[in-house]
Amino acid sequence: MGTSSPPESSDRRSPNNLPILGNDKVSLVELKILANRMLPRNSILRALILSELDYLPKVEARVKAEVYARLLHEEIARDIR
User: Which H or E run includes 77?
Assistant: First the structure.
């Protein structure tokens, strides 16, 4: 997992409910833990999330969260077929 030093924390959350840290950084740590526990090892979404840095700028994290949601829906649809 990619890491970077954690910025100052706060109780604020982004529109996607990701924790917002000082300097408008968002922690992906909880998402990465969830992906590691819940998604199958062959999941492209899992690999993508786990490859991210632990902290991203808020704008970048929001865009990526939208992509993750689309990939999750695609993986669920494929699993159902």
Answer: helix 58-80
Kindly state whether residue 25 falls inside one of the protein's structural domains.
Answer: yes
Q: How many domains does the chain have?
A: 1
Is 72 in contact with 34 (CB distance < 8 Å)? Answer: no
Say if CB 13 and CB 19 are below 8 A apart: yes
Tokens 């865009």 correspond to what residue? 63
Q: What is the pTM of this model?
A: 0.71
pLDDT in tens, the chain (81 residues): 555 555 554 456 666 676 666 678 999 999 999 999 999 999 999 999 999 999 999 999 999 999 999 999 999 998 865
State the Cα–Cα distance between residues 52 and 28, nearest whole angstrom.
8
